[in-house]
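Q:
My hope is that you can spare some time for a protein that puzzles me. I hope you can help me see how the letters and the tokens relate. Thank you; the sequence and its tokens follow:
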Amino acid sequence: MSTYTKRIIIVILILFHVRLSGQDNDTSALFKGSLDAAVISAQNDIHTNNTITITPLLIKTTPSHFGEADPLKIILSMPGIQNSNEGDVGLSIRGGDTDQSLISLDGVPIYNPSHLKGFVSSFNSDIISKIDVYSGAFPAQYGSRLSGVVNVESISPDMTNFYGGVTIGMLSSKIHLGGPIIKNKTSFFISARKSYFPLIIGRIYKNILKTKNNYIEQFKQIGYYDINGGVTQRIGSNNSLDLKFYIGDDNISLLKDKEENSSQMRLDTLINSYSGKTDSEKWGNTAVLFRWKSESHNLTTSTYSYYTRYRHENVDQTYSEAEYLLQPNNTFIKSYSERSSILRKSEIEEYALGADFNIPHLSNHTIAFGGKISLQNLNPVTHSSYTQEYSFAGKRDSIYSYEAPYGGKYRLITGSLYGEDDISVGDISNVSLGLRLTYYGIDGKHKIIPEPRIRGALYLNPYITLKVSYSRMSQAIHQLASSNIASPSDLWVPATADFPPMTSDIVTLGLWHQKKYGKIGLFSSIEGYYKLSSNNMEYADGYSPLKQISWEDGVELGHGKNYGVEFQGKINYNTINSSISYTLSKSVQQFDNINNGEWFFSNQDCRHNLTLWLSYSPFKNFTISSSFYYKTGRRFTVNDVLIKLGRDIADAHHTYDPHINNMYAETIWLLYDIFSYSEKNGYKMEDYHRLDLSFDYMIPHKKVGRSNINLSFYNLYNHMNPYKITMEQDPYGKVIFKKLCIFPFMPSISYSFEF
């Protein structure tokens, strides 16, 4: 272990063991789900579940990204959770791939919760009531993912008063409205958001980065929108009906590598050539939920049905044209054109029907049970086409073309039954025993996977809790990534008869301390985890999704191993709130036909992950918040490297005569290329770190409502963190690594009005 690593661990341990004394006092709502929940009731799920609840207040007091408060970005400040790349909202929980995290809106899965290729999440902060995050010790109610659960709960419409607001930012603007339709019986809410990236942010990027071939500058069209809405109907005093929906779409048109050349060689040959590459991409989510809730003293029932759909389409086109005009007679024109197109399409839709039941007031028991059945249709398709055409004197001489579609439609039926008993043993301990049975119907074959769960808590004293858990999870859908960067273009594919569902077993052991000391609220925890997974899916070495073969012929099955230790501490003192999170972890995988069968680091391996957060209100209605992020650089593989082995010179000394053959003396350099494959994910980018700062000022109005002004600074000291690594060669054949940075220092401002 390096000296640097030891120092980090020592600092974390010192902060973890901080103890302060005094009298009890109320703590901030920022601690909801951790400190406050434990103070209210010793039997709260905080003692048995690895659950963290994010409140709207925490969302608003965290530095925004381009002036947009992003709920999923806040989750990245929690221990054991990271994104695969800067700006990406794909969540890796405890070393698992991003597709192993279930992200849902009111219990409805959202398969790609991102805008702008992951720079912004799909969730509008205006409609969120809370976010529950599970990183282990999963309740039996949850399944279908291996690593974690993030459930975003939307607001319940107000039955008595109208409310609303509008926000104008540099990246997007949004509006929301809600209130009663029939007072105390029927209510609604609706929100809409629309971006205008090229108008403001795009221009700022152009001035900051000042490069002609910049990744951002080349966007011809980029934008997104989303709409959330819902209607609630009360039926009597104990029943309600909810109808909620979400619609969101993205569209990106990218122009890159455009070249135009015009040159005159000798006196009689004019050459015009054009070449370029266009990339257009669009994706979106649709979700609809219908839910009936019934609540009584003895039984709570939630019966629901939902529909969710994710669709993605990417068209990548390459073209080149050349025209040769021969003089002096101008009688001969030769033209050449070459075009290629690759269409990648991924679609997944799900229909589901389910019910959850809860019996809360049995003697020392809380029983939960329920079930769900769902139908998933998946359609991963890739279509390649190529056309080559020659013409002479305006007449087509020859043409060559081909088309290679591959992919198909798949149907997956999933059913589940679960039951769980949460048992309290006085004031000493709490034990939760659960079992989930999951059925998969795949290609006419049937498979039932038992998923046992056990969680326990031992209360060492009123403030310290020892926790232990074991969970087994299964997952029947995969997102095949073509690179280390998670992308909407990654294909969603199902388990098949040849590729069984993934499974994982995770064990956790932790110690939690939570107490109030006078005006100070303190929460601290240390927890270790160990997870084994099987039937992991990965593209084979050398495979490209652009090859004309099915995805089923290009993947391998293997095993995964993830383990680590997480530290977390929170301190609240009057108007000061702070937190620290640190994770020391390792994530490795093994496939028989990848990396020569040897274990290798997974894409999500991150040895060190540190987050510091501070919020301070020096006076009423004004808040300063800051966050610092540090993590070990992302791993990647060096493959398909072009290497120049040598140079052979072939001299063609021709006599130049324009009346004969229009040839001239030239030298041809012959270069030999090979492919080099390093160890899988054997390279690591430089470490990532950045500092964000935000100022938030609320202005109350005498007559109605309030205004809010937010000023944020992203990447305050302008550290150029790598987004992507490219490889080039110098004239001597040496391979040069270059990094692409697309998130420099970025100031932003937003204004909102609420009533």
Observations:
- Residues 3-16 form the longest helix (14 residues).
